[in-house]
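Hello again,

I reread your note about wanting to compare the complex against the isolated chains. To keep things tidy I'm splitting this into two emails, and this first one only covers the full assembly. Below are the input lines as submitted, including protein chains and any nucleic acid or small-molecule components. They are followed by the predicted structure of everything together. The single-chain runs will come separately.
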Amino acid sequence: MAYFDFEKPIEELELQLENIKKTADKNKLDLTASVFELQEKIEKAKQDIYSNLTGWQRVQISRHTDRPYTLDYVEHVFTDFIEMHGDRNVKDDKAMIGGIARIGDQSVMVIGHQKGRNTKQRQMRNFGMANPEGYRKALRLMKLAEKFNMPIITLIDTPGASPGLEAEERGQGEAIAKNLLEMSVLKVPVICVVIGEGASGGALGIGIGDRVMMLENTWYSVISPESCSSILWRSWEHKEKAAEALKLTAKDMLKNGLIDGVIPEPLGGAHNNPEKMYQTLKDSLQNMIADLSKLSCEKLIETRIGKFSKMGSYTEL
Amino acid sequence: MSWFKRVKEGITTSTEDKKSVPDGLWHKCPRCKKAVTTAEHEANQFVCPGCNYHDKIGSKEYFELLFDESNYTELFANIYPTDPLEFKDTKDYKSRLADSQKKSGMTDAMRVGTGTIQSFPIVIACMDFNFIGGSMGSVMGEKIARAIDYGRENKMPVMVISKSGGARMMEAAFSLMQMAKTSAKLALLAKDGIPYISLLTDPTTGGVTASFAMLGDFNIAEPEALIGFAGPRVIRETIGKDLPKGFQSSEFLLEHGFVDMIVNRTNLRSQLGQLLSLLANKPLVKPEVE
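Full-complex prediction:
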């Protein structure tokens, strides 16, 4: 397990604990009391650290390479997944995956950004940065879901839409724009969950839903803290400040009325206890599907558009 | 002793007798350096007669150019920006706003006007680049949303003139959600069967491109405008190579199928009149001499 700088106290305590256990084993000593004491200390340190995370620390957690990615959730939250490929125009974008699956006994369409864990995978998945064909594949699958009356679940985890020659040639802007428009009038329930990074138009491109949720240690904003720092402060050095200024945490986003809810993560982040994370997400998704399924498609669309129409901050004089 | 001798006096006119040229009488094209009088430049819709360079102009100029007799009613002028995140980088957002408002005399980077083009009613939302780079914040989103509502209520076509670097970072996720808001409103306009025209001018990038600017029933571009999602600098840094000439230009977008036509600003009014008359299935009332 890799520790972040701010987790150093926990790392040290866990090291101590390991040593004590070893000593106990080796010398056949009964150190249960010390072990217990240390375990309590660790628990307390965790509580202290994780309940006071800064924006930048959450950004770091959201990028932890051991965090569950879209396909991990697909495997553990859903059953009977059939992956579908291609936008029917250009190619299959491996940074955006999707297919039909079951959650409980409900068939759904699952779509999400996919990152890679090692260098080879990361390249194949283009670091979770989708191209226009990724957004067009996503829309194709959403239209299918609408046709067969299945709820749609999108899992957002991207450092942004892919910037490149081919992306521009094939209309990255148009692809995202089209999704925003089409998703706002889908006749089936749409649930979007930010499971890691939610950067800009690349995230929003699959992010128009009846419920837009964020896992506790994720971020969602118009730009990454690094890029924001380089543009506004003209240096990469101010990313911590930028992360605070952008108010990009789940808590801030909920407070500003820009998302519908926060899904709690296990102590220390989703990667610390993936099984628990899967269960929490599953329960949450099932509850939301049950609620949204009660609404007529007209009501769904009206409420969805109404919600996004209200977003903004201005005054009238 | 020098080997030449001045036989004729050079400049003999005294300073007071010189014909003075007032400042701002001439306009020099930033590209081809051709000089024309500012009056000529304005009469030519701020387009260089030498190289067809389209100078950046603001909402006021577009409205005067496009609406019949330069006559229009401004709508929703009373919407002002706030600072919801109390954003501060090297300068705080509040003072940035105050400075821009003072400099430009506008409340934010967008003006909405309604009137007629060759007698066809239309509502136009136009950006002003000199207000924080035409960046999209909550005010722009709200004004576009209301322009669309106005178009729906009055059954008249809606046009958005884009000239923007993209999202306004100082409004962070509020700015991002304006993409969702405007696109959702456009879905309603489409449902009502009301035309939406998007005019893309130099520059149109970022979140503006990835929402309403690319969603026109008709996407029209001014010549040689920079239009794209990711900025050229970001792409250059990502791919580590220089970008091909003409990349992300209006002509590039036309070639790749993302704009319907490129229209010179000097022809814009007549082209729009023709389009609106076709859409209304009515003849052009009086073919004006432009």
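For quick reference: The CA atoms of residues 258 and 311 of chain A lie 7 Å apart.

B.
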